[in-house]
């Protein structure tokens, strides 16, 4: 997936770092795809950067939002709330979630080789 | 690596999402370890969360800092500046770097099974 290119700051980031339980997938992959799809439909969603989960079960997803109101609305969205509850019940060993105001941003793209 | 546990907000996050070039490692892994070690020695460094690079060469590292002054000092650190130049010259196909003020944070740890 290419990196998100966004309008100029300020905007908000939700930094979600998580470690999966050792259990089987148990619906996790399907939920993750569905939540990404659903987030992208929300008012104020700007984009997200996400890595595949590494060998230690750790992954980081950063989603970007126009403002805090958009983040709060997404937090309260019904299907998302159900997925969060399932996450705590069975999918995640641990996670941290941080809400941050993006103040500066820089991009780099390698020039095409001549 | 366990997830970073930090003091209460506010503090700052540097969100670095990058895609590697298809080239050989060419010193990249060694540099990455050295930069993590060096960052951890800086005044105002609080911690970092980082995933292994996935199959598409993408990785996300989020480092946490006490304040913007600490981030600026790290940006100017000589060895780090050299590594950033090398990154643009040969290691990265593209990257985005965002500086954000963390305003709220939540942790979850699965209770030990009885």
Main sheet record of chain A: 4 strands, antiparallel
List the uncertain runs of chain A: none
Could you tell me the radius of gyration of chain A in angstroms?
15 Å
Provide mean pLDDT of chain A, rounded.
91
Which chains share the greatest interface?
A-B, 44 and 44 residues
**Might you state the CATH topology name of chain A?**
Alpha-Beta Plaits
Order of helices and strands of chain A: EHEEHHE
Tell me which oligomeric state these chains represent.
Answer: homodimer
| Number of helical segments with 4 or more residues of chain A | 3
Summarize it.
Chains A, B: Pfam families: ABM (PF03992). The structure is a homodimer of 114-residue chains. By secondary structure, chain A is α+β, with helices and mostly antiparallel strands.
Write the layout of secondary structure elements.
Two copies of one chain form a homodimer.
Chain A: E1 11-20, H1 28-40, E2 45-50, E3 58-65, H2 68-76, H3 78-91, E4 92-109
Antiparallel strand pairs in A: 1-3, 1-4, 2-3
Helix pairs in contact in A: 1-3
Provide tags for this entry.
homodimer; 114 residues; alpha+beta; Alpha-Beta Plaits; 3 helices; 32% helix; Dimeric_a/b-barrel (chains A, B); ABM domain-containing protein (chains A, B); ABM_dom (chains A, B); Jasmonate_Hydroxylase-like (chains A, B)
């Amino acid at each position: 997936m290419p990196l998100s290119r966004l309008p100029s700051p300020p905007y908000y980031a939700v930094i979600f770092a998580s470690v999966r339980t050792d259990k089987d997938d148990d619906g996790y992959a399907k939920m993750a795809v569905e939540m990404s799809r659903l987030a992208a439909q929300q008012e104020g969603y700007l984009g997200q950067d996400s890595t595949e989960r590494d060998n230690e079960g750790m992954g980081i997803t950063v989603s970007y939002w126009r403002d805090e109101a958009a983040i709060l609305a997404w937090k309260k969205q019904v299907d998302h709330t159900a997925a969060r509850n399932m996450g705590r019940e069975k999918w995640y060993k641990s996670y941290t979630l941080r809400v941050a105001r993006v103040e500066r941003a820089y991009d780099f793209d390698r020039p095409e080789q001549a």
